[in-house]
Design brief:
2 domains, alpha+beta, 12 helices, 398 residues, 6 strands, Alpha-Beta Plaits, Multidrug efflux transporter AcrB transmembrane fold, two-stranded parallel ribbon, four-stranded antiparallel β-sheet, elongated
Amino acid sequence: MISFSQFGNDLYTGKRSIPFVARARRWYTISAVVLSIAVLGLVVNGLNLGLEFTGGSEFRVAATSTDGYESRARDAVAQVAPGESANVTRLGTSSSTIRVQTERLNEAQSDELRTELAKEFGVDRNQVSASFIGPSWGQSVSQQALRAIVVFLALVFIVMALYFRTWKMSVAAMAALVHDMVITVGIYAWTGFEVSPATMIGFLTVLGYSLYDTVVVFDKVRENTQDAFGNKRMSYGEAANLAVNQTVVRSINTTVVALLPIAAVLVMGFTVIGPGTLLDLSLVLFIGMGVGAYSSIFIATPLLAHMRAKEPRVLDLERAAAKFHAREAKDARKAAEQEAVPATVPGGAEGEAAAVGDAEEQRESVSAGSRGATPRKIHPYAQTGPRNQPKRTPKSRR
């Protein structure tokens, strides 16, 4: 059984390969389905905006007993403001603090609700705090967050285009970022998680993390494709796919290491701490980092390879790489044929030895029969036999 480290080493060296680029249509289909579900959640449910964005009144009760706290708190609100909706939560499972959020109440209604909550939970009125948050503050935060996102994306686009010397890498990275934002927001819409200012901060953090992972992959893509343009041994898609295979284990390890402490904070937030800034921030980070790791591997690089597939230089490289692969396949077939049919000498080793012996005997007989003639040296490879015999002189001429 192969280990994970050995598997990663095989991916890096090219011994194994996952066809990320070749199966780009499959990843696009999966992302399109998930994006459609996310957008549908925004249309159907919308976002559960926190009190900071909608405005309203908030009450906190240091209760001694939390049995049936939701119905008891809503009954108290109904007595003061009939028909008014209330968001009731408990701040942590081990905490006895109850948070009640309603729409904006006037000063008289706030004082009356404090009294009713104190009576309902059997505590002193001083143990019930009241606060009011206007919607203008939330609108200001939203505007500043959107402005920060626009500036961030514009700067990232310019910097990446200058660094990688191609605007197509910037477009692919921006597409991955939008992919991450829409899916993350869609998860919030379907689950009903509250969107707070801490959530907005988390969105910006997720964008930075997703971009960091994408840039690491793109840097390896640039290195591999430059080598491919130089040696003409791989097409652009093959070089880009190798880059993703070489960085996929690193991306997975980095994401897992980053998600483990965030998961610990989430568990503490849901079980002990309760709703608050820490829980809101860790929740969006956990969702966004997981989605960002997926987009940097399955979306950004395949999209980049698809965008550059029609460039003349890339097409020339693809043809040159195809010729190189054809030569490699031809050489491999020749080598296999030579190994399958080894070279042999007719007659085997015994026939070869007999042929050498016959040649030696012929040379010795020629030397012995050359009486009265001028001795001459016969070349080892000269033809032997009557044609090499010396011409005899008749007896009458002696």
